[in-house]
Amino acid sequence: MTASRDFELDHGLVRRRFSARAATARETDFLAREVASRMAERLDYIRLQPGRILDLGCGHGADLPMLSQRYPAAECIGLDFALPLLDLARSERSLLQRMLGRSRGPKLVCADAGQLPLARASVQLVWSNLLLNWLTDPLPAIRECQRVLEVGGLLMFATLGPDTLKELRNALPRQAGERVHRFIDMHDLGDALLEAGFADPVMDMQTLTLTYPDLDTLVRDLRNAASTNAARNRPAGLSGKAGWRSARAALGQTQIEGRLPVSIELVFGHAWKAAPKVSEDGRAIIQFQPRHPA
Q1: CA-based angle 64:146:164, to the nearest 5?
Q2: Which of 40-49, 184-193, 284-293 has the lowest mean pLDDT?
Q3: Engineered SS bond to 163: which of 137, 258, 265, 292, CB 3.0-4.6 Å?
């Protein structure tokens, strides 16, 4: 899987935006909280007792209490590339320690998802809530997840699919540049899991519909959540007042009972790290089973 040549996210801008919103992260985190709940429901059907868990793209650490409570014997690591969000998570860590009666809370690491500072085969569960949609090409991060997982370890993630914000995308003037940044299709993510060496990938999709009183409220929510367009070839603004008028008119035709519907396509996936079929130097691995006497 490779990124489209005509689309690239500005990862430096993404980092700066999330860093700037750290102070209000709790108040603008409602979508990730809903997604975490749905991911946890899927985890209910999986038998796993990890000794070490990586929360990849942990943000301000909101998922760490749930993971720590579900797996009390496990060591939890929260990793994110926005240091101010990790500082917020660190301030909440002492409360989590008291809640769980532990002397030590989750470890917090500032790093990039494509270069994880963890040893090979050192983790049994990688959990990632709405991180992959902020990567131009998620394959390097998925490969890193495969590297740090033990054989038999699980990658569980949720991301956003291509129908996310489709109403806004269709309403904005069609000019050069990306008005709403693209999201990767569920089937392409499944292919990326297989390409990275994962086995038995399971993918499913749900559509969540939010409603807003008007376009201005929608855009304000996106800005407050650091979730506005991050494409490198994004145009500046909405082409002035004419662009806003055009977008409002187009969105007005989609109203339901006086409110604007906004689609969020949620893509859920999980896959297991299988035993390698070839060694690191490319030689085939053949397993011999002992013969039992007749």
Answers
A1: 65
A2: 284-293
A3: 265
CA distance 69 to 232: 40
Kindly indicate the confidence band of residue 289, based on its pLDDT and cuts at 50, 70 and 90.
very low
pLDDT per residue as tens digits for the range 151-199: 999 999 999 999 999 998 888 766 545 678 889 999 999 999 999 999 9
Q: Residue 78 is inside which H or E element, if any?
A: strand 75-80
CA distances from 21 to 16, 35, 134, 222 (A): 9, 20, 16, 11
C-beta of residue 244 within 8 angstroms of C-beta of residue 175: no
DSSP 217: H
pLDDT of residue 279: 59
List of domains in the chain: 11-160+183-205+266-273 (3.40.50.150)
> How many residues are there in the chain?
294
Burial (CB count within 10 angstroms: exposed 0-12, middle 13-18, buried 19+), residue 91: exposed
Provide the 8-state DSSP code for 60.
T
Q: Indicate the residue type of 116.
A: L
With beta carbons less than 8 A apart as the criterion, state whether 182 and 232 touch: no
Rounded to the nearest angstrom, the gap between the alpha carbon of residue 230 and the centroid of all alpha carbons in its chain is 15
pTM for the whole structure:
0.88
